[in-house]
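hey so i finally got around to running the thing on that chain from the lab meeting. sorry it took forever, my laptop kept dying and i had to restart like 3 times. anyway pasting the input first so we r on the same page abt which one it is
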Amino acid sequence: NLGLEIMGVRTMQRLAAEMDARAHLARSRDVFRQDATDHGIKEAIRRRDEPFGDGVARR
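ok and heres what got predicted. didnt touch it at all, straight out
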């Protein structure tokens, strides 16, 4: 337990709660849910991830 406290577990828990709240309040969440309802989960994921390309770093 001491090791976790030294590593900042309390700070991480606070940040996780903040990030979770932001994610649940984000407009993009509503868009994703609507896409999943209208077009299916596979298409919703494709649309969500499309702006990021294929994930391969290029120079």
